[in-house]
Amino acid sequence: MNILIIRFSSMGDVILASAVFSFLQKRDAHVSIWLCTDPQYTGLFQDDHRLAGVLPIARNNEASLNEGELKGVVFDRIVDLQNNRRSRRLIGLLDPKIPVCKFDKKHLKRILLLAFRLNTFSSDDHVVVRYCRAAAGGDPGDQIPTPRILIHDDSNTTGPVSSILSGSTRPALALAPFAAWKNKEWPQDYYCMVGKYFAAHGFRVLIFGGRNDAAGAQSLARSIGESATALAGGLSLYECASVLKRCALSLGNDTGLLPLARAGGIKTG
Questions:
Q1: Fewer C-beta neighbours within 10 Å, C or N terminus of the chain?
Q2: Which of 52, 60, 58 is nearest to 76 (CA)?
Q3: Residue range 199-212: average pLDDT?
Q4: CA-CA distance, 72 to 179, in Å (whole number)?
Q5: pTM of the model
């Protein structure tokens, strides 16, 4: 059976969707899974043996999904974890006879939470559970896998990842102090305090972020001291995952780097 999973964004949600790969394989060891996502996230899955293929589809370019990329694959089912106009446009280009299972976004509950701070979600409303429910087309059962990003250890032997990881036996603390929405950010002074505390206890402090966060990361690193290294803007997402996998702890805001650390098996806060 060939199954197409659609989740374009955001980064955290794409990472959470990785739980569905394991979920489907537990149900059918012979299933072939294809992931359709935004091109900026495809590198995260380059080592993922659970996937038969990763299809990069840029925004407003859904028609780029062509037969050459699919190599004649005929899908038996589509799992639409995005469930918006963009994913529906893509599905409209495929065979209309293919069954489609959709993720329940629970719009009303989200509005109540975000606008009025009324949390009506239950433990069964966790995004990963709802992803697996969509993939199952019904009750997913009790065995819900943990999201995992798979990185080959031998991929860390060269390049910037090697230079960061080599030459020290000290444990590393990963800080992700930046967010696209500033109201999601913990005060920088607090990150500085945490960084100094762990540095005093023998940790290296690695500061992650995007290209736009490079200056802020450098400033925070200087405030923490010589045990801190600013990595923001200098690594690909795959390289970030490689480094995070080797850290002992991670502390960050509600951004994609936090689920990326969790998906690498790192303790997070």
A1: C
A2: 52
A3: 96
A4: 41
A5: 0.90
